[in-house]
Design goal:
The structure holds two protein chains of two kinds.
Chain A lengths: L12 H47 L4 H34 L4 E7 L5 H8 L19 E5 L2 E5 L9 H12 L3 E7 L5 H12 L4 E6 L8 H15 L2 H17 L7 E4 L1 H7 L8 H8 L1 H97 L5 H10 L3 H38 L23 H10 L28 H85 L4 H4 L2 E7 L3 E6 L17 H12 L4 E6 L7 H11 L7 E5 L8 E5 L6 H14 L2 E4 L2
Parallel strand pairs in A: 1-3, 1-4, 4-5, 5-6, 8-9, 11-12
Antiparallel strand pairs in A: 2-3, 7-8, 10-11
Helix pairs in contact in A: 1-2, 1-10, 1-14, 2-10, 2-13, 2-14, 3-8, 5-7, 8-9, 10-12, 10-14, 12-13, 13-14, 14-16
Chain B lengths: L2 H23 L4 H7 L14 E6 L5 H9 L15 E5 L2 E5 L9 H13 L2 E7 L5 H13 L6 E6 L10 H15 L10 E2 L2 H9 L3 H11 L1 H37 L5 H49 L7 H46 L1 H16 L4 H24 L9 H6 L8 H12 L8 H18 L3 H4 L6 H89 L2
Parallel strand pairs in B: 1-3, 1-4, 4-5, 5-6
Antiparallel strand pairs in B: 2-3
Helix pairs in contact in B: 1-2, 1-18, 7-8, 9-18, 10-11, 10-12, 10-13, 10-18, 11-12, 11-13, 11-16, 11-18, 12-13, 13-18, 16-18
The chains are: A alpha/beta, B mainly alpha.
Chain lengths: 723, 575
C-alpha cells in the first residue's frame, strides 16, 4: 500500500505538482467514464421521447396543429438534454486542455484586491490594479505562479454586473482550489451566499480577508500604516467581522465554519518596489502575506492530488447532481399533470357513457311525449273525421301541427349545449388543476433552488410542466359539439278506407290504425334522431379524447423519460460520490479491506454524505503511529480532506433485499423523520425505476429535505408530497 | 418659502387625508380600519423637531458617526450591532439610528429600517468606500426614484481611510464617478455627497503627536460632514417636513393595498369547486325533471287510452251494467295509477341520488378535487384574511363540501322521513281518500274538476246507460239506417256518451298529471333548488367580495397617485 500523501515528510511543491500531473490523467479518465454513461442515459431518454412522439402521432391524427407544437417542444427538450451534456463535456475538455497545471481561481467582489494579489504573485508592476473604481478586471486572466495556474476573474456582485457574475462562476467551475477574497469593510450576505454556492459545487476554498488601510498618497498614510496596521488587523473589530461573515455562511449552510486568513495585500505589493526597499521587510511582515502564501502551498502539497482528481469528477458531478433533482421535479410535475389528464379522460369516458344513454333516452322521451300528445287526440279526431273522405290528409295535417321535428331539434340543441359545457368544464378544470399543481409543488422541491438558476441554463425551462401545458392548452380551439342531424321522414303510413263497414267498426279500425301510425311514426323518428345524435356524439367524443390523449401521452412520456434520466443521473452521482469517498479514505491511508466495505454512497455535496457499508470502517492502527480507532474520527478526517463541514456518516448492514417500503420505514426511523402515512405506487412495468412514495404535504425544514434527498438517493424511489 | 402655496397645499392635503381616513374606516378589513386612526390631519404638524434618519448598510458606520455627532455612546463593531432604532438629539434635531438595510438574512431589521424611513423628515444614507453592490445599488435607486426620496437624502461615504490612497480628492473623484452611475440623473452634489473616515477621527482622539492628530482630523472629513449636514438640513428642512405626513400616508396606503394581495388563489379554488358541484347538481336536477315529464306523459296517455277503449266500443247494443262494470274496473285502475307514478319516480330518485353522489365523489377523489379541498382548507387557515372574508370563505367551503350530503339526506329512499315518497303521498291519492284529494287539488289550482266528482262521473255513465237501455237490442240494426229519426237520436246520445266517458278520463288524467307535476316540482325546488341556491349565494358572495375588493384597491391606488403628486409638488416648490 502506498504511503498516504500527507504522511510523507517534507514533500515539496514540485513533487506535489508532479503527482498532481499524474492525478490529472486518472481524474480525467474517471470523469470521462461517468460522462459516457451520462451520454448513454441521455440517448436512452431521447429514444424514449422519440418513441413517445411516434405514439402520440398515432393517437391524435385529428389534432395536427397541437401535435406539431408538441413535437417541436419535445425536440427542444431533447436538445436541452444534449446541450447540458455538451456544456459539461466542453468544461471537462477545457480543463483537461490545461492538464498539467493545478488551477487556482481568485474569486470575490469588485475591489476586494484580486488584482493586487495577482500582481504580488506574478511580481508585476501593478498595471492591473484599479484605483478605487469598481470593475477593474473584466476579463479572465491567467498566469503562472510556482508551477500553478492562477486565474483572475471579474468581480462578483458589482452594480448591474450580472454578466460578470456568469463569467466568474464559469471560471470557478474549473478550479482545483478557490481563493475566496473578502474585505474587512462590510462583508455582505450575498458574498457569503456565493461562497456557499462554490462549496456546494464541491470546491475547496481558502478564504482571505484583504485588510485595507491607506498606505500611499502621502507620508502620513505610510507613517500611520506602519504604526497601526498590525494592531488593526488583529483588532476586535476584525474578529467581529469574521464572526459576522461566518454567521452569514451558516445561514445558508448550517454547521459550516470558514477559517479566514487576513493580509494587507497592498503593503506586500509595495514591499517589492524600489521606493520602499528600505522598509521592505517590515512591509512584508506587517502584510502577513507570507502566512497566507504558505497556506496555499501547504494546501496544494497536502490536498492537491486529491483535489485535482476531485475537481475533474465534480465538473461532471455538479451538473449531474443538480439535474437529477431538477429532472425529478420536472418529472413529478409532468407526472402529476398527466394524472390530472388521466382523471379527465376517465371522467370524460364515464360521463360520455351515461350521457349517451341519457341523451338517447331524452330524445326518445321527447318523441314519446310528443307522440303521446298525438295519441291523446286520436279519439276526438276519429269522432270528428271518421266519415270524412280526406281523412288521410286531415290526419297528416293534424300530426304536423304537433311539430315533432322542432321539438327534437331543440332537444338535441339542449343536449349539444350540455355536452359543450361539460367539455369546456373538463378543459378549464384541467387548466386550473395544472396551475394549482405547479403552485403547490413550488415549495416541495428537494433541491435548494436559491443556488441554481435554471432560467440561465438555456432550454431547461422548456422541459418543465408549465411549458408543456401552455402548448397543449392554447394550441387550438377547445373541442366543440359537432351538431348536425337532419330528418328525412316518410312519416305517413297508408291505411285502408272501410266505408262499407259499420261506423262502430270504422271507428275502432281507424283508431287502431291511427295508433299504429303513431307507433310507427314514433319508431321512425327515434331511429333517425338517435342515429343522428350518435353520429354527432361520435365526432365530439373522438375530438375530445384525441386531444386529451395527446396531452396525456405527452406529459406521461415526458415524465417517464425525465424520471428515468433523473435516476440514471442519480446513479452516476452516487457512483462519483463513492469514488470520492474511496479517494478520501485512501488519502487517509486505510487498508483496501476497509475501503472495500463501502457499498454505495449518497451525497449532497458539502452538506451531507452517507456511506452504506457492510461493516464498520476502521482506520488502520499500524499507520505511522496514528492511534485513531474511534469511528467518529474517520468522519472528522474525511471532512477535513473534503475541505468543508460535510456531515459524513455510515449506515452499516443496510438490508436492501427487504421490501422497498420496509427499507423506507427503516431509514425514516433511523433519521427520525416523520412524514405521516406513506403511500406506495408502482408505475408502469416497463420502467426501470417505478416506485413512487407519496406523503401528505408538510412544511419541511431544509435539513429534513436533505435527509429525504439522501433517502431518495439510497432507495432510488421518488418521494412526492401530494394531497 | 411661499406661504400662499403652503396654505393651498395644506388645504388640499387636509381634504385628501380626510377622505383616506374615511375610506380606511369603512373598509371591511379590520386591519385597514385600524390604520385609519393613524392617518394625520395635515402636512403641517406644529413645531416638533425635525427627524433625520441614518440609514444604510450594516457595518457602514452609522452608529459610529452618530456617537461622534451626539457624544452618546452607541454600540459599534464589526458585526450587525444595532438591533433597533435609537433616537438621539443633535442641535435640537432628532437623529435616528437604524439597524441598517440589506443584510438580506435579517428581513426583520430591514422592516425596522423601512418603517423609520417612512416616518423620516430627512435621510442620511451611509455607505462605505466599497460603494454599491448590485443589491445595495438597486435598493438605493428605489429610495431615490420609486420612493421619491431623492430630494430628501444625503449620501455619506465612510471608511475612505481603507483606500490605498486614503481620503484624498483624487480618490473622491474616482468614487464620485462610480456613484454617479447609480444616482443619475441626480448629481453628486445634489445628494450632498460627503466622503469621510470616522476611524481616522477616532484615532485622532488618541493621537498625541500634534501633526498626526491634525492630519487625522483632516482626512477624517469630519468638518466637511458637519458643514454638509447642516447645509442639507437647512436647505431641505421644509421639504422634509412637509412631505413627512405624505410619506406616512403613502406607507399606510401601501399597507392597505398589501392586505388585498393574498387570497386570490383561494377564491379561484373555491370557485372551481363550487362551479363543478353546481354543474353536477344542475345536471341531476335536469334529469329528474325530464323523468317527471316522461312519467307524466306516459301515464296520462294510458288513462286517456282506457277512456278511448271504453268510449270507442260504446254502442246502442251495450248494456248499462256492462258499461258500468267496465267503467268501475277502470276507475280502480285510474286510482292506482297515481301510486304507480309515485313508485316509478321514487325508484328513479333512488338511482339518481346514488348517481349524483357518485359523480360528486368522483370529483372529490380526483386529484383536482383533493387538491382543491386541501388547498382551500389550508389556505383559509394560513391566509392573512379579514375575519369577515375568512368566514365567508369557510362558509363557502363548507357549503361545497356538504352539497352531496344535503341532497342525499333529502332524496327518497326506504326509511327516509322526509323523502320524496312522503311528500308526494301527502295528497293521499290512494284508496278512499281520492275525493278529498280531488277537491284539494281543485282548490289548489282553481280548476273545475267536475268530471272527477263522483256524481257527475256516475251521471255521465248513467246517461249513456239509459240511452242504451231505451234503444234496446235493435240498436245495432238502427245504426245501419242513417236517416231514421230514432237512430239519429240514439247516435247523438251515443256520441255524447262517448264524449263524456273520454272527457271524464281526460280530466282524470289531467288532475293526476297536474298533481303529480306540482308535487314533484315542489320537491325538486325544495331540494335541488335550495342546494343550487346555496351554491349560487356562495358564488355571489365570492364575486361581490372580489368586486368590492377590486373597487377598494382602485380607490387606494387613486389616493396613492394623489399623495405622490402632492409630494412632487412640494419637492419642486420648496428648494
Amino acid at each position: 500500500m502506498a504511503i498516504p500523501t500527507y504522511l510523507r515528510e517534507k514533500k515539496t511543491l514540485e513533487e506535489a505538482l508532479i503527482e498532481c500531473k499524474n492525478a490529472t490523467k486518472q481524474g480525467y479518465q474517471e470523469a470521462n467514464a461517468v460522462l459516457k454513461k451520462i451520454k448513454q442515459s441521455i440517448e436512452d431518454a431521447q429514444e424514449q421521447l422519440t418513441q413517445g412522439l411516434d405514439e402520440i402521432g398515432s393517437t391524435g391524427s385529428s389534432q395536427v396543429e397541437t401535435l406539431s407544437k408538441v413535437k417541436r417542444q419535445l425536440e427542444t427538450v431533447k436538445e436541452c438534454f444534449e446541450q447540458s451534456y455538451n456544456d459539461t463535456k466542453a468544461r471537462l475538455e477545457s480543463k483537461h486542455g490545461k492538464k498539467d497545471a493545478f488551477n487556482i481561481v481568485l474569486f470575490g467582489r469588485t475591489m476586494c484586491g484580486k488584482s493586487t494579489l495577482m500582481e504580488i504573485l506574478k511580481k508585476g508592476q501593478g498595471d492591473s490594479i484599479g484605483k478605487g473604481a469598481q470593475r477593474t478586471t473584466r476579463d479572465i486572466r491567467e498566469y503562472e505562479w510556482n508551477g500553478l495556474t492562477i486565474t483572475d476573474v471579474p468581480g462578483i456582485d458589482s452594480f448591474e454586473g450580472s454578466e460578470d457574475d456568469v463569467l466568474a462562476e464559469e471560471a470557478a467551475d474549473k478550479a482545483d482550489l478557490i481563493i475566496f477574497m473578502i474585505t474587512a469593510g462590510q462583508p455582505e450576505a450575498t458574498e457569503a451566499k456565493w461562497l456557499v454556492k462554490l462549496k456546494r459545487k464541491d470546491k475547496p476554498i481558502l478564504c482571505l480577508c484583504n485588510y485595507k488601510q491607506a498606505i500611499t498618497g502621502n507620508e502620513h498614510n505610510l507613517k500611520r500604516f506602519l504604526k497601526t496596521a498590525e494592531g488593526n488587523m488583529q483588532s476586535a473589530h476584525v474578529t467581529e467581522m469574521f464572526e459576522q461573515f461566518n454567521k452569514f455562511v451558516q445561514d445558508n449552510l448550517p454547521g459550516e465554519r470558514i477559517d479566514i486568513y487576513i493580509a494587507h495585500l497592498q503593503s506586500m505589493f509595495l514591499s517589492r518596489k524600489e521606493d520602499y526597499s528600505n522598509i521592505s521587510e517590515e512591509l512584508v511582515r506587517i502584510s502577513r502575506f507570507p502566512i497566507f502564501e504558505r497556506a496555499i502551498i501547504n494546501y496544494v502539497i497536502r490536498y492537491g492530488v486529491f483535489n485535482r482528481r476531485r475537481s475533474f469528477l465534480s465538473i461532471v458531478d455538479n451538473p449531474v447532481y443538480l439535474q437529477y433533482l431538477q429532472l425529478l421535479d420536472f418529472s413529478r410535475d409532468n407526472y402529476m399533470e398527466s394524472r390530472h389528464v388521466y382523471d379527465a379522460i376517465s371522467q370524460f369516458k364515464s360521463w360520455v357513457e351515461d350521457f349517451e344513454i341519457d341523451s338517447k333516452k331524452k330524445i326518445e322521451t321527447c318523441i314519446d311525449n310528443k307522440c303521446n300528445d298525438i295519441r291523446n287526440c286520436i279519439s276526438s279526431f276519429v269522432e270528428e273525421n271518421v266519415t270524412a273522405v280526406n281523412v288521410k290528409e286531415l290526419w297528416k295535417d293534424r300530426v304536423e301541427s304537433f311539430n315533432i321535428q322542432k321539438a327534437i331539434d331543440s332537444k338535441i340543441y339542449v343536449i349539444g349545449s350540455e355536452a359543450q359545457r361539460k367539455i369546456n368544464t373538463i378543459f378549464s378544470n384541467l387548466d386550473a388543476a395544472f396551475k394549482i399543481t405547479l403552485e403547490l409543488n413550488k415549495d416541495t422541491s428537494l433541491s435548494d433552488k436559491s443556488f441554481t438558476n435554471w432560467k440561465k441554463i438555456n432550454g431547461w425551462i422548456s422541459a418543465g410542466a408549465g411549458a408543456i401545458y401552455a402548448i397543449l392548452a392554447f394550441s387550438s380551439n377547445p373541442v366543440g359539439w359537432v351538431f348536425g342531424v337532419s330528418f328525412v321522414f316518410g312519416i305517413f303510413a297508408l291505411f285502408n278506407d272501410s266505408r262499407e263497414e259499420k261506423l262502430r267498426n270504422a271507428r275502432i279500425e281507424l283508431t287502431k290504425k291511427l295508433h299504429k301510425n303513431v307507433d310507427k311514426l314514433c319508431k321512425d323518428y327515434k331511429k333517425t334522431a338517435v342515429r343522428g345524435f350518435i353520429k354527432s356524439m361520435f365526432q365530439t367524443k373522438k375530438d375530445t379524447l384525441s386531444r386529451l390523449n395527446i396531452m396525456w401521452h405527452t406529459l406521461s412520456t415526458l415524465a417517464n423519460s425525465q424520471r428515468e434520466m433523473a435516476w440514471s443521473f442519480c446513479e452516476q452521482h452516487c457512483e462519483i460520490s463513492k469514488v470520492m469517498s474511496v479517494e478520501v479514505l485512501k488519502e487517509l491511508g486505510l487498508y483496501d479491506s476497509e475501503i472495500e466495505k463501502i457499498k454505495s454512497v449518497a451525497r449532497i455535496p458539502s452538506v451531507k454524505s452517507v456511506m452504506l457499508a457492510s461493516d464498520y470502517i476502521h482506520i488502520n492502527n499500524n499507520n505511522k503511529g496514528k492511534q485513531q480507532t474511534e469511528k467518529g474520527n474517520i468522519f472528522y478526517l474525511m471532512q477535513k480532506t473534503l475541505g468543508n463541514s460535510e456531515a459524513v456518516s455510515t449506515i452499516v448492514s443496510f438490508d436492501d433485499s427487504r421490501p422497498i417500503s420496509a427499507q423506507l420505514f427503516f431509514l425514516l426511523k433511523k433519521y427520525n423523520l416523520k412524514l405521516g402515512p406513506v403511500q406506495f405506487v408502482e408505475l408502469k412495468q416497463d420502467l426501470k425505476y417505478r416506485n413512487v412514495a407519496y406523503f401528505k404535504p408538510k412544511d419541511l425544514t431544509q435539513q429534513e429535505k436533505n435527509t429525504l434527498n439522501i433517502i431518495q438517493q439510497i432507495l432510488k424511489i421518488q418521494i412526492i408530497q401530494r394531497n | 418659502m411661499n406661504n400662499i402655496k403652503i396654505i393651498e397645499l395644506d388645504k388640499s392635503s387636509r381634504e385628501l387625508f380626510k377622505n383616506i381616513k374615511n375610506t380606511f374606516s369603512s373598509s371591511s378589513n379590520n386591519k385597514i380600519v385600524a390604520i385609519a386612526a393613524g392617518v394625520p390631519e395635515t402636512i403641517i404638524d406644529g413645531e416638533s423637531p425635525i427627524n433625520v434618519v441614518f440609514a444604510g448598510q450594516y457595518g457602514a458606520g452609522k452608529s459610529t458617526i452618530l456617537s461622534l455627532l451626539t457624544g452618546e455612546k452607541l454600540e459599534t463593531g464589526g458585526g450587525v450591532t444595532t438591533q433597533n432604532c435609537q433616537e438621539l438629539e443633535w442641535n435640537s434635531i432628532h437623529v435616528i439610528d437604524t439597524p441598517g438595510i440589506h443584510t438580506q438574512n435579517r428581513p426583520d431589521h430591514d422592516q425596522i429600517t423601512y418603517d423609520a424611513i417612512a416616518k423620516a423628515d430627512l435621510i442620511v444614507f451611509v455607505i462605505t468606500n466599497e460603494l454599491f453592490s448590485d443589491h445595495l445599488g438597486k435598493h438605493f435607486q428605489k429610495l431615490l426614484f420609486e420612493k421619491q426620496k431623492g430630494k430628501e437624502i444625503m449620501l455619506v461615504v465612510n471608511k475612505m481611510g481603507d483606500e490605498t490612497l486614503g481620503n484624498c480628492t483624487e480618490n473622491q473623484e474616482i468614487k464620485g464617478s462610480e456613484i454617479k452611475k447609480v444616482i443619475t440623473p441626480y448629481e453628486i452634489d445634489e445628494l450632498y455627497t460627503t466622503f469621510i473616515d470616522s476611524k481616522s477621527l477616532l484615532e485622532s482622539f488618541e493621537e498625541t503627536d500634534i501633526e498626526d492628530k491634525e492630519w487625522l482630523e483632516e482626512v477624517s472629513g469630519w468638518d466637511v460632514l458637519q458643514n454638509n449636514l447642516n447645509k442639507f438640513i437647512k436647505d431641505k428642512r421644509l421639504i422634509g417636513r412637509y412631505t413627512t405626513a405624505l410619506f406616512k400616508v403613502e406607507q399606510q396606503l401601501l399597507e392597505a393595498l398589501a392586505e388585498f394581495k393574498s387570497g386570490d388563489t383561494c377564491t379561484d379554488l373555491l370557485k372551481i369547486d363550487l362551479v363543478t358541484r353546481r354543474g353536477e347538481l344542475v345536471s341531476s336536477q335536469a334529469r329528474i325533471l325530464e323523468k317527471i315529464e316522461e312519467i307524466s306523459s306516459k301515464h296520462k296517455t294510458q288513462i286517456q287510452k282506457w277512456g278511448d277503449e271504453i268510449a270507442v266500443e260504446l254502442s246502442s247494443s251495450d248494456k248499462k251494467e256492462t258499461v258500468q262494470a267496465k267503467l268501475d274496473s277502470r276507475f280502480n285502475d285510474v286510482n292506482e295509477e297515481m301510486g304507480k307514478m309515485v313508485k316509478e319516480l321514487e325508484n328513479y330518485l333512488n338511482i339518481e341520488s346514488g348517481r349524483l353522489q357518485q359523480n360528486l365523489d368522483d370529483f372529490s377523489s380526483s386529484d383536482l378535487g383533493r387538491m382543491t379541498a386541501d388547498a382551500i382548507n389550508s389556505e383559509i387557515k394560513n391566509l392573512n384574511l379579514d375575519p369577515k372574508n375568512r368566514e365567508g370563505m369557510q362558509k363557502a367551503a363548507g357549503a361545497s363540501k356538504n352539497i352531496g350530503e344535503f341532497i342525499i339526506k333529502h332524496a327518497t329512499g326506504p326509511g327516509m322521513k322526509d323523502g320524496a315518497s312522503n311528500i308526494l303521498k301527502l295528497g293521499g291519492y290512494s284508496g278512499s281518500k281520492i275525493h278529498e284529494g280531488v277537491k284539494w287539488v281543485g282548490h289548489a289550482f282553481g280548476h273545475k274538476f267536475a268530471p272527477w266528482e263522483a256524481v257527475k262521473w256516475a251521471r255521465g255513465i248513467g246517461n249513456a246507460g239509459r240511452v242504451l237501455g231505451v234503444a234496446g237490442a235493435g240498436l245495432g240494426f238502427v245504426l245501419q239506417i242513417a236517416n231514421d229519426r230514432q237512430e239519429d237520436k240514439a247516435e247523438r246520445q251515443l256520441i255524447q256518451g262517448r264524449s263524456e266517458i273520454r272527457s271524464a278520463f281526460v280530466d282524470a288524467s289531467n288532475v293526476i298529471d297536474l298533481r303529480f307535476d306540482e308535487d314533484s316540482n315542489t320537491w325538486v325546488a325544495d331540494n335541488y333548488g335550495k342546494a343550487i341556491k346555496e351554491v349560487d349565494d356562495r358564488l355571489e358572495e365570492l364575486e361581490s367580495m372580489t368586486t368590492k375588493n377590486n373597487n377598494e384597491v382602485a380607490v387606494y391606488e387613486q389616493y396613492l397617485k394623489e399623495v405622490r403628486n402632492l409630494i412632487a409638488i412640494i419637492q419642486e416648490n420648496y428648494e
